[in-house]
Design brief:
With 170 residues, the chain is α/β, with parallel strands linked by helices. It has five helices and seven strands. The chain binds guanosine-5'-diphosphate (GDP) and magnesium ion (MG).
């Protein structure tokens, strides 16, 4: 059996739980009570989906604030990458922008930004600007309730990670 991790992060009400629920084959677990530190005992959840005969993908949902990075560290073995879920509110955009910046400063982990509530290409470009995202980074507009679309996001993140790994070993 192989187990891979994806961290799903974003501010409150950005759509993390919705995304994880859409693809999880197990009831999404609320891990709020399972971990310390005490002040991070909120909003941590876990879903799982089988991506091949013997490979399971764990989806770990947390807010983007620093105090949750302990969960990111714990998931760093077998980490495929991050999904940032961003809504259209100013808070969500600012919170996501900050978290992306932090991640890019610390390590070269693949990530994809998933926006919900956008209409058309113009909105996507506006969001890219607002987040200060580099051109080579992926930003997609997805209805998080759509299983097929969310699965595509997972597949895309997994394949970009494999591409990075292949480069490292080449
Ligand atoms: N229109 C639309 N609403 C969404 C989408 N994803 C989530 N929502 C709604 O946004 C709200 C917050 O989502 P939730 O998953 O609880 O956010 P979380 O706090 O990040 O876990 C809920 O009412 C969802 O039904 C989406 O892709 N499109
Ligand atoms: Mg939630």
């Amino acid at each position: 059996m192989d187990f891979l991790n994806i961290i799903v992060t974003g501010t409150g009400s950005s759509g993390k739980t919705t995304l994880i629920n859409t693809v999880s084959e197990i009831p999404v677990m609320d891990l709020s009570d399972a971990f310390t530190p005490k002040d991070a005992r909120q909003n941590v959840e876990l879903g799982r989906t089988q991506i091949s005969g013997d490979t399971f993908l764990y989806l770990i949902g947390t807010p983007p604030d620093d105090k949750y990075h302990v969960f990111w560290d714990r998931a760093s073995n077998d980490l495929v990458g991050f999904i940032f879920v961003v809504g259209t509110s100013k808070d969500s955009i600012e919170g996501t922008k900050k978290a992306i910046k932090t991640l890019e400063e610390v390590e070269k982990v693949p990530f994809i930004v998933v926006a919900n509530g956008l209409q058309g290409k113009k909105d996507i470009e506006k969001m890219r600007k607002a987040l200060g995202m580099k051109k080579e980074r992926d930003l997609v507009s997805v209805d998080l309730r759509d299983e097929e679309k969310v699965n595509k996001v997972l597949a895309s993140l997994i394949s970009s990670t494999l591409a990075v790994d292949a480069k490292k070993t080449a």
